[in-house]
Fold:
Amino acid sequence: MKIGIITIGNELLSGFTLDRNAAWIGQQLLSAGMKVDIHHTIPDDFADIYDTLEYQWSRWECDHIIVTGGLGPTVDDITVSAFIEYFDDTDKFDKDYWDQLSDRFKKLNFKMPNLNKNQAFKVKKGNMIPNKVGSARGLHYTKEHASFFKGVKAMVKKTSKVVNFYALPGVPKEMKSMFTNYVLPEIEKTNLNKVVCKSIRTTGVPESILQEKITDIIDSNKDNCDIAFLPHRMLGVDIRITSKNAKLVDELINTIVPRIKKYVYGFDKDKLEQVIADLLLKSNLTVSTAESCTSGLLAARLTDVPGSSKYFKGGSVCYSNELKINDVGVKSDLIERYGAVSEEVAGALAKNIANKNNTDIGIGITGIAGPDGGSEKKPVGLVFVGIFYQNNLYIKKYNLTPDRITNRELTVILCLNEIRKILRNS
Amino acid sequence: MKIGIITIGNELLSGFTLDRNAAWIGQQLLSAGMKVDIHHTIPDDFADIYDTLEYQWSRWECDHIIVTGGLGPTVDDITVSAFIEYFDDTDKFDKDYWDQLSDRFKKLNFKMPNLNKNQAFKVKKGNMIPNKVGSARGLHYTKEHASFFKGVKAMVKKTSKVVNFYALPGVPKEMKSMFTNYVLPEIEKTNLNKVVCKSIRTTGVPESILQEKITDIIDSNKDNCDIAFLPHRMLGVDIRITSKNAKLVDELINTIVPRIKKYVYGFDKDKLEQVIADLLLKSNLTVSTAESCTSGLLAARLTDVPGSSKYFKGGSVCYSNELKINDVGVKSDLIERYGAVSEEVAGALAKNIANKNNTDIGIGITGIAGPDGGSEKKPVGLVFVGIFYQNNLYIKKYNLTPDRITNRELTVILCLNEIRKILRNS
Structure:
């Protein structure tokens, strides 16, 4: 089975926007045991869209062609017209959908502009793909593969099959929702060469060390099984095991996990914050935070999980020393003696915030995110995390990077992983 | 003039690696006043490379075709063979370059692996592009545009011209060095039509409403100027103006901005949080936050800007009612009477946090992020933002979406935009 992607937009070609949509679709397909064969990025141009559909269909003989972009309500959005022309179809105004859209705009206190009328249509030969998170619906057409284009060097095969064409919005949130809920299930229906793909999620360990620990397993299974290492976000590596033999995949997971147990936080789509949420809920524990350099990022991450009010009470964003002292009760002479970025202050933040908010766990974070504020003794990237739990104080010291955004995000992930380890061992 | 890019690699198609090379080349060309017309991402496959060269040359009629990837010493690097075949050329061992390479390896105390012998060749009809930072040299061929491919919908023109083909390594450092030192100067030699590109950044308004307000301007300039709408993150839309006429671009910006003034927060690469930071610093104002449903996201965003400690003191993440009362001093009977998600509580959070932390501005946020916790009267997506400044209380009520993550991020952006408007008007 062959899959093609067409991403549309001058902003992609000019490098104004990085093409994360195509990469995301590639990842999703790979997780589902399939791969992308060809990807075109083309301008917002009618003839280019038309010809590229034809080219992926004929030269590349794709079974599924996924187009993203050009479904918005403005003039430069011409994917729909190209599809309608390509499939020799017509569209008409969809009164029901128009009423739904008007209603939605009303709730947002905007008068519905007439332009959005472009989005309230339906086609005759194709299906409309529902949009759960935006206004432009997608399109799904099928077409019998009947004629052939002879590539200069490509083999010409004579087979007949049904080819699926999907038009999705370029807005990532809308595209992802439609892809997950509609396109992927459609593709999976036609996929006969299914492979099983499972992932072991790890954090706090580099790829190369993970690999070293299981080299013998990789070697002895290389004919039946693909084992890949996917660095995922910062400091997270997934070990992905792909095979046609589902039983083998499970066996390998059971062999690999014990060897790297302390780095494993979950499987497949598990998220670190959800794993921690489950651990907290299981033990009926509450948590609060006192954050300086991460300034609310940890609190935000802990509450990404629905229902987080059951374990998270809140906390302090004590960015200034004034608030560390007045709000979290850190003694000013502690700051004077050791500095705001110190083991001692991280510990005091953790202990005091737990006491102040009457929670089982208190977390304190203080560090130098950068780019300024570093010194020879305390360089940019120096971060202390304190975790107070069951009258114990756990302190971690990190020397991270010169980059502000990276330091803040890394600190949150490292801190979440420490919480996980402490809860798992207790 | 038309420019095409071909990036080669299975790891790009699977989304394992984000295609930053193509984006980078697009940016370089745009900065030099040119744009990319087509970009293909294809597998490491001889026939695919050969056919894609042919396709960009014939259907797209590119003047310059830039290929990256597949020049390394390992087996899956087959770009060179595809080029040699495509141009009906031959290569031979290049003793001089082999000696240079051996010498370089020796200096690094490595024995030169035989694999690198693949890289010590030269072609007959094309030029070798020097590599200042690595071992694989690039290729440069030219070819007269002599035959035509008829796109199904594309116009067929009969002109004759010389087309340039470049093969560059996929390693970013090597690709960038060759592009800057060799390819860009070659392209610039042939470029007679430079373009200028500027953006107006807006927020808090849908794309379609923006367009309606400037439809006449778009129409009356469509022959000389491209005006595009780029939805960027949530609720942010850039209006990008591209033209060969630099004066016209400036004139259009001066005509468009007054019509949509209240939505414009900046130009080109300006960020909303940076714009607010500048406004706060200019007036020497400080700010603190009391966040319930966003749980630290606003504080984190305000401190994404380096040096934010000059205006941001900190705040409270008052996720539970207990903390709204004990930490931010909201009266419990206010919560009982109006509910925690209410205009009154948002106002109290804003006012109290400013007083508690002694800042000029206080911001309070309370809402129902979802997916649970909604009721008929107060559905998921209901959010109140309070801003206390100069003894005035500004309250905004929003009915957002059913999605938790979206509601939290949208709230932060809408709130930042309110702060911007209040500061700009004061």
